[in-house]
Amino acid sequence: MTDLIKKLEESKKYIVEKIGSRKPELGIVLGSGLGGLGDEVQDAVIIPYKDIPNFPVSTAPGHKSRLIIGTLEGKEVICMQGRFHFYEGYGMDEVVFPIQLMKMLGCENLLLTNAAGCVNKDWKPGDLMIISDHIKICAESPMRGANCPELGVRFFDMGNAYDKDLRALAKKLAGQLGIEVREGVYQYFTGPQYETPAEIRFARSCGADAVGMSTVPEAIAASHMRMKTLGISCLTNMAAGILDQPLDENEVIECAQKVTKSFTALVRKIIQEWK
User: What is the rounded average pLDDT of the residues 168-179?
Assistant: First the structure.
């Protein structure tokens, strides 16, 4: 048994002691300003991250740093109110530890959400974007180092990291709800500094529609474990250099909160129809 599996088993044992025979089938990661959906989970067991063995603690603004296990739209879910980022000082292996733990608890499905900067000049803050693919140019990978065969193979495919059927479902349901959604490419930057105008021009030339500091490591770990993954970005601000104004983290959280109603309606409908 590898050291990683030992740590995951310790964390799993603690959580199972709290939730008993419940079997989460869908993992949800809620990004900056989007954590309110976690408060709607029914029959919830709430576990602070600091109480879970081997678990990091979230320090990013707008993240409550707790795990919620319960029922949402008829499905057993495990919901992260707050995630971990490389810029917080955590290694990539620590960033994705919760995703691996979800898998160990029985989750085969993963919904990733984030707040992101909008690169596409034809879009606007407040838009929701279904992630079709991502770009990662930083060298560090959460799968670097010895492979853990209990979780996945050494070399694995990323061609359908954001499941095409789930993306089609999300777009169909958004249409039924009258919610306009975009679909595009998310480019990962490690942060914590926002991107420079030159970096945004580079991102646009690479085909990116949005940029952010999360999600991609988690999606990589999920692909390694063959989890079906859907990603949704809330575009909270125009990226650097597009508007003549500095970027502000309060703007990110405020914009995310303004679209909470449509975001929540769409996510609840997706969970309801998730197969």
Answer: 97
